[in-house]
Amino acid sequence: MKEFFDMGGYAAFVWPAYAITFAVVAANVIWARRSLRQAQASARRRLAARAEPA
Amino acid sequence: MNFTWFHRLGSPPYVYALARRLTPWFAWAAALLIIAGLYGGLVLAPPDYQQGDGFRIIYVHAPSAWMSLMVYTTMALAAAVGLIWRIKVAHAAAAACAPIGASFTVAALVTGSLWGQPMWGTYWQWDPRLTSELVLLFLYLGYMGLRAGIEDTQRADRASAVLAVVGIINVPVIHYSVTWWNSLHQAPSVMRLGKPTMQSSMLVPLLLMLLGFTVFFGAVLLVRLRAEILTRERTSGWIREALGA
Q: Which of A25, A33, A44 to mutate to test the interface with B (most CBs of B within 10 A)?
């Protein structure tokens, strides 16, 4: 197991590379979901604003 | 030839509903492919005869770099379709691509630099491949900045589409930079004419990762596309139904 984490002496380069890539993957999931939620919320607000004429 | 499928792809309600239905399939397929690719790349593949275990950075670097180029190409094609046929959904798709592509361009640059330090002895070099990839990041950022700077969505769509289409020039420049100029970066080992230059125990995990990231792009694009469609559809009644409001 230790051997695996050592990556033949390249651990300081291999693991950060994997970490940054999967941070980007996770960030994409979070950002995309957030942008959909925000768009849905603002569409709902528009609908509500039109439902009750001022 | 029946083109109704193409016309339906220009219809926001149809695309919105289709995107919602397809997202879980893309997400699960991406997760399975990437997990299999990681296991193959980190555990099953043998160390490289020159680079030892350091070569395993390829399993995140090459997919990130592939995403940076493939997403840009998708974005430019969607932008061109939007410009030529004035299809709103195409512009929405182009806009949805940019943040995804930009983020993976950053991943490609950072993982490349983490690979460069042990193998070339430097994190950064003003080399043709590295420099053209950095230009790609600026193209994405310019595209997003341009969109953010124009209030009217239709005008933002058209202006940013022109930038996306012109910027496509950079894609072949990046790909061929290692062949055209003397570059520190190694030549392509998979995306080349003829057979890949890797052993299958190393190659198969890489192909799984490339496919997994591509499908992942599909999943994220579908979610972002729905958001972009909603912001463009100000008055349509179908939104009420789609939101269940």
A: A25
